[in-house]
């Protein structure tokens, strides 16, 4: 149903959110000076939602503000100016992981190479048949899927949770509505029955709504309906209906540019909360336990100077999506805002507001931003710093943000992982590296070095098959410090050997005490480069294993890639001997060092463990995926089983499974847990 049949005049442009279109909700941005309406009609007939424009002015910016990943530029009768338009539109499409189709006359095919060189990814010759249009759009969609990955129900649910989204979907006998849409419809909750939803619409327009829904269910084709916004005379909302995996869902947008975003509540560029909205949110939580993360992207101005503002704007949007996706997945009820050019604020509540969890989230966010972004043939690498502040009883929003800003300033000038925290109890929690080296020498005697076990699962199964032993330093001043900080401190203080021996002995001791119900689990423990360089390491290590009572047949020794490269010949001899004694061996964190495929041929290995950053990159660009695919296929060709670390999303798991990965570990299933919690987790399964 064309909404014009309902008497609704579509404006020249629609301002829509910058959220990426989801599978089954395919949107196409059309730029055509002379045939906007005709191309829009053909796109809708092909099953696509059309966001169409006639004017070329600021086309790149308007594409960024649409929810489309594919743009179609009508180049029939193109001149040099139009080719320059492609050159300006192309980077914004590419930076967002999209596709750009150029439409040319059949007699102008000679111009296609120039247009492709200028940034187009596909072309279509006019006149074209509906089948040719569908095929071109399908090809463009496949490119987008390769660049940004497929989409699952969980990501649709995440979009429901996005504060700026105007979106709803049917969930059983209920309708789930995004927070922003519920507010505009005057609803006080995000899940209602269909009758309640319909009653929020003007009585005179309910029949057209029901007709559109029935028409779509009958034909399976996209439909749309429009209605007046409750309490806002003259403003109208249009609902673009789709069937998504058999579920009725709808994108909703204003039919007026003036209401494309909240005047004070949303950041225009990223769709995140605005600074004012963040302040309002914090003020409402005054007196409640709240933690603020202030995240800053470093040297972004240089990137802007190198690639241009259009690419920079697109990149900020992608950064915002990474920050939002990771925060929503890890912290229920969190608030995410862009409060300045390259500064983002994350507000945490409840259990997520503890210093330990806030610091962990900060590390994950910094790591996510550090993973490369693609822009054409270039990979853009960024760094970030984070200041954290926990609320005090007398805090208002300004004071809390000011303390987070002070912590951020310390993080910018300090070294290490780029995180500083001000807690509610102490004036400062800045980590003193020299003091840590001193403290580490006392930590073993004080019993501060603990062991966690992170479960490992087959990619196609639900039952745990093994665990990796991880170290955690329960520092009396700084709280829980992860293995990265622990081993970095040990390396600086020349304390690696005693630390490694303690971790190995403690992990084996605890694992040997597991009940019979866990007798099938493998245990992976890490061996450092310093360990294997020690004369007599192997007999000492085997004696440690045998004295613990843990079976050699269930033990995997993991050596980091960098440790192997320091002395390949010695590493080869050691691994051969360990395997002869009944142990399995693995290369850990593959992808973080030299990643020389040649030396792996000479190493006697059982497993190859893909580093978490590399595993997460499989959901990134096409280049990222090719690299991960190459590593997995290389390992399989050598007869190795592959374990992926740091798997955080269903999308990553699905892609790793398709490429032949065998096992995985990560926060998608479980963080590291204590031995007692591991037993409970395994028995419950």
UniProtKB/TrEMBL annotation:
PROSITE patterns in the record: EAL, GGDEF
GGDEF domain residues: 288-424
Protein name as annotated: Putative diguanylate cyclase/phosphodiesterase
Record GO terms (molecular function): cyclic-guanylate-specific phosphodiesterase activity
Domain called EAL: residue spans: 433-685
PANTHER family: CYCLIC DI-GMP PHOSPHODIESTERASE PDED-RELATED, CYCLIC DI-GMP PHOSPHODIESTERASE PDEF
């Amino acid at each position: 149903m064309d909404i014009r049949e309902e008497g609704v005049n579509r404006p020249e442009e629609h301002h829509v959110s910058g959220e990426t279109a989801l599978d089954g909700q395919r949107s196409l941005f059309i730029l055509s000076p002379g045939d906007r309406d005709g191309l829009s009609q053909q796109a809708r007939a092909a099953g696509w939602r059309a966001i169409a424009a006639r004017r070329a002015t600021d086309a790149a910016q308007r594409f960024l503000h649409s929810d489309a990943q594919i743009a179609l530029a009508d180049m029939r009768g193109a001149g040099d100016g139009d080719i320059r338009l492609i050159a300006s539109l192309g980077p914004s499409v590419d930076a967002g992981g999209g596709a750009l189709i150029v439409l040319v006359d059949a007699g102008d095919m000679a111009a296609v190479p120039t247009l492709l060189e200028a940034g187009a990814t596909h072309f279509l010759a006019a006149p074209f048949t509906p089948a040719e249009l569908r095929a071109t759009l399908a090809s463009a969609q496949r490119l987008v899927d390769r660049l940004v990955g497929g989409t699952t129900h969980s990501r649709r649910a995440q979009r429901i949770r996005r504060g700026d989204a105007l979106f709803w979907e049917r969930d059983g006998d209920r309708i789930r509505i995004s927070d922003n849409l519920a507010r505009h419809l005057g609803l006080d909750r995000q899940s209602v029955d269909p009758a309640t939803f319909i009653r929020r619409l003007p009585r005179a327009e309910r029949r057209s709504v029901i007709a559109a829904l029935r028409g779509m269910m009958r034909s399976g084709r996209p439909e749309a309906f429009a209605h007046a916004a409750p309490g806002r005379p003259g403003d109208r909302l249009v609902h673009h209906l789709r069937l998504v995996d058999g579920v009725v869902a709808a994108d909703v947008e204003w039919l007026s540019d003036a209401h494309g975003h909240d005047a004070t509540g949303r950041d225009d560029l990223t769709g995140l909360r605005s600074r004012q909205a963040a302040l309002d949110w914090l003020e409402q939580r005054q007196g409640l336990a709240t933690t603020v993360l202030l995240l800053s992207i470093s040297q972004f101005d240089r990137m802007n100077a190198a690639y241009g503002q259009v690419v920079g704007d697109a990149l900020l949007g992608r950064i915002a999506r990474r920050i939002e996706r990771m925060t929503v997945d890890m912290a229920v009820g969190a608030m995410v805002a862009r409060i300045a050019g390259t500064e983002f604020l994350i507000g945490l509540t409840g259990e997520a507001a503890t210093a330990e969890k806030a610091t962990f989230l900060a590390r994950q966010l910094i790591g996510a931003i550090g993973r490369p972004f693609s822009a054409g043939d270039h990979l853009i690498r960024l760094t970030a710093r984070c200041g954290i502040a926990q609320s005090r009883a007398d805090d208002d929003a300004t004071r809390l943000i000011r303390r987070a800003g002070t912590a951020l300033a310390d993080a910018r000038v300090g070294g290490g992982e780029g995180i500083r925290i001000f807690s509610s109890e102490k004036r400062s929690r800045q980590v003193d590296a020299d003091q840590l080296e001193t403290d580490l020498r006392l930590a073993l005697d004080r019993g501060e070095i603990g062991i966690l076990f992170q479960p490992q699962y087959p990619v196609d199964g639900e039952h745990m098959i093994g665990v990796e032993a991880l170290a955690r330093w329960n520092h009396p001043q700084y709280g829980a410090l992860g293995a990265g900080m622990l081993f970095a401190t040990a390396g600086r203080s020349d304390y690696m050997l005693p630390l490694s021996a303690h971790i190995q002995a403690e992990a084996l001791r605890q694992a040997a005490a597991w009940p019979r119900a866990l007798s099938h689990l493998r245990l992976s423990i890490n061996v450092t480069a310093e360990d294997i360089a020690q004369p007599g390491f192997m007999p000492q290590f085997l004696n440690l294993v045998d004295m613990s009572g843990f079976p050699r047949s269930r033990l995997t020794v993991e050596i980091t890639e960098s440790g192997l490269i320091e002395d390949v010949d010695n590493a080869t001899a050691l691994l051969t001997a360990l395997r002869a004694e009944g142990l399995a061996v693995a290369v850990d964190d593959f992808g973080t060092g030299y990643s020389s495929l040649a030396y792996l041929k000479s190493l006697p290995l059982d497993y190859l463990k893909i580093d978490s950053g590399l595993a997460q990159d499989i959901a990134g660009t096409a280049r990222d995926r090719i690299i991960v695919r190459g590593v997995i296929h290389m390992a399989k060709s050598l007869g190795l089983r592959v374990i992926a670390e740091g798997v955080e999303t269903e999308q990553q798991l699905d892609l790793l499974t398709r490429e032949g990965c065998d096992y995985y570990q990560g926060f998608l299933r479980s963080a590291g847990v204590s031995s007692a919690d591991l037993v409970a987790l395994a028995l419950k399964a």
